[in-house]
Amino acid sequence: MSNDPFPAYRFSRALLREPAASVVCGLRAVDRGDPSLELFHLEHAAYRAILESAGVETHLLPALSDWPDSVFIEDPAMVLPEGAILFRMAAPSRAGEPDTVREALQKFVPVTPLENGHVDGGDILVTGPKIFAGLSKRTDKEGLDAMGAIVSGWGYELVGVDMPEGLLHLKTGCALLDEETILAVEPLKETFSDFRVLTLPEGEEAAANAIRVNDIVLLAAGYPRTEELLRRSGYDVRTTKMSQAQLLDGGLSCLSIRF
Questions:
Q1: Is residue 147 within a helix (H) or strand (E), and if so which, with residue range?
Q2: Which UniProt keywords apply (predicted)?
Q3: Domain count across the chain
Q4: Is residue 169 among the annotated active site residues?
Q5: What is the pLDDT of residues 119-151, one digit of tens each?
């Protein structure tokens, strides 16, 4: 493991992917209409600006029209201080995305490809030496076994999480706030028994996909009770609109690979 005692929310760089015109064809569990490409670009730019204001150097990769969901760049890979893991994606329409981030990652860190199974980055929550991994429709046991073999060699413990109904990814329902605290929906509360858990207010469960970035917590706009809960708990909260990403079951963490 890194000599840094807790690197899990301290970031100096982030990779982002420009939304492609084909994003209107992106995957979604429930059809609530197609996103507006113009609005998506505006919200994406605002998100990038907040990362930069938090001290993160951002690198915007070009749009990929062949991969409609490629704006959700977190899913094909993850980065730890020891290097990146290039995942294998279960959704056929996203299967080629890992290769599209390999070159960009190799400029900064060594890259290790996952050899077996499937993992989406949205199912991976790094809390420090313990990494939680959701078993979902996009992440399977074979993939977690392969990932576990990699990260255990780096000194991490990988903990599998059986997913509650209604969550696409693990981080659809939880976020790391600091080394002791997790924001989570009620069905995931017991998963994090070693942490202080802030439970999402009823009706605002969609706010769970927040991200801690250095000294701020970034929260999707439109969840006032969650924002108040976080502020009362001592966090410096910034909000930004996520209306277009949310139409495709996406959120804040999905839009960047932070390291």
A1: helix 141-152
A2: Hydrolase
A3: 1
A4: yes
A5: 999 999 999 999 999 999 999 999 999 999 999
Is 41 noted as a catalytic residue in this protein? no
Active-site option among 44, 118, 174, 254: 254
Distance (Å) of CA 137 to CA 14, 97, 134, 186, 250 = 26, 17, 9, 20, 15
**15 Cβ partners below 8 Å, 6+ apart?**
58, 59, 61, 73, 101, 104, 105, 256, 257
Annotated binding site for substrate: 27, 69, 74-75, 94, 138, 248
Please identify which of the residues 44, 118, 169, 174 carries the catalytic annotation. Answer: 169
Q: Domain for residue 194, yes or no?
A: yes
- pLDDT of 2-46, one tens digit each? 444 557 999 999 999 999 999 999 999 888 899 999 999 999 999
Please state the residue numbers annotated as binding site: 27, 69, 74-75, 94, 138, 248
- Residue 143 located in a structural domain: yes
Asked whether the whole model's pTM tops 0.90, one would answer yes
